[in-house]
């Protein structure tokens, strides 16, 4: 009985360690993905602002 219990306890600890390691990996990858997506978003916003400025300038020039 004691051996089975000890084995179950060890298995539980092993599974917890594996779970913790996997969740840490997932979190790390999610953080990296968030950084990449944030940079892409910043680039898209900059491009949008440039296009808006060009459109505004075009509209001002055509109103003359």
Principal-axes shape call:
rod-shaped
* Count of strand segments: 0
Helix content: over 70%
What's the alpha carbon Rg, rounded to whole Å?
27 Å
Percent of sequence in beta strands: under 5%
Count of separate DSSP helical elements: 1
Task: Sketch the topology as an H/E string, one letter per element.
Answer: H
- In the residues, how many domains can be counted? 1
CA distance, first residue to last residue = 93 Å
Tell me what you see in this structure.
The protein is rod-shaped. It contains 1 helix and no strands. It has one domain. With 64 residues, it is mainly alpha-helical.
Which keywords apply here?
64 residues, rod-shaped, mainly alpha
What is this entry, summarized?
The chain is 97% helix and 0% strand. With 64 residues, the chain is mainly alpha-helical.
